[in-house]
Amino acid sequence: MNAMMTILAAIFGLTVGSFLNVCIDRLPRGESISTGRSHCEGCGRQLTARELVPVISYLALKGRCRSCGAQIPRRLPCVEAATALVFAGLYLTNLPTTSFVLLVVYACILIVVFVIDLEHGLILNKVVYPALALALVVAAVVPPQWLGSLGPHPFVSALTGAATGFVLLFIIALASRGGMGWGDVKFAAFMGAATGFPLIFVALFVGTIVGGVVGVLLLAFRKKGRKQAIPFGPFLAAGTLVALLWGSTILQWYMGLM
């Protein structure tokens, strides 16, 4: 039964991943994600239902449009497969239903931010602001288990986390004089609202460490120059997911070393 539910979670993730690709494609262009049929970017032909089956259609078409032969971005099946893996992994953590649903929603937001920033170097207000509002409303109405009991209500933990993330990255953005984008600063507010205080520190720490390691590797293998910008959003998104899943464990481990 558990194996079957995991498979169903993965299949659902594939379907949601297909929608996330629509968001990733259209949001930076200012297009609607609720209207308009999917089409080939090369010839403009509307895609049929058979061409929209997650991952399978890409493999069947060998990564090319059957009409004009234009290459289909590899990102499409990658996002679909990654979303399926995340959904299946979240199900296997045996979280309470409410926490599972919320983590699925947060994971979708993080994937969209991850990919858009990676491709365009942008963290969009139209993604961050609704996500921040959602996290604060959830903390006030149905606070998840990972929000601490800071103050009279977990909402205080979320609000403090949002303020902490925003202020810390705001100071860094000012000090770096353009080295960090303001999208990262606003995204840090969502990170704090989602993880709460003090788990925002785990999210920022993990994101910074991973970003630093990847940056050094890119420089070492000459994939990036010293003056080339490296999007920080993907690492912040990864740090947020780690904090949501294992933040309390990491924090307890760290405090045990002190």
Task: Map the helices and strands.
Blueprint: H1 2-26, H2 56-60, H3 75-92, H4 97-120, H5 125-141, H6 154-176, H7 182-195, H8 199-220, H9 233-257
Question: Could you characterize what this model shows?
Answer:
- The structure is a single chain.
- By secondary structure, the chain is mainly alpha-helical.
- The protein has two domains: 94 residues, no CATH class; 163 residues, no CATH class.
- Helix content is 67%, strand content 0%.
- The chain contains nine helices and no strands.
- The radius of gyration is 19 Å and the shape is globular.
- 37% of the residues are buried.
- The mean pLDDT is 91.
Helix vs. strand class? mainly alpha
Beta-strand proportion: under 5%
Helical percentage: 55-70%
Q: What value does the Rg take, in angstroms?
A: 19 Å
* Span of the ends, CA to CA: 43 Å
Shape: globular
Low-pLDDT windows of residues: none
Key words describing this protein structure:
9 helices, mainly alpha, single chain, 258 residues, globular
Sum this structure up briefly.
It contains nine helices and no strands. It is mainly alpha-helical and 258 residues long. It is globular.
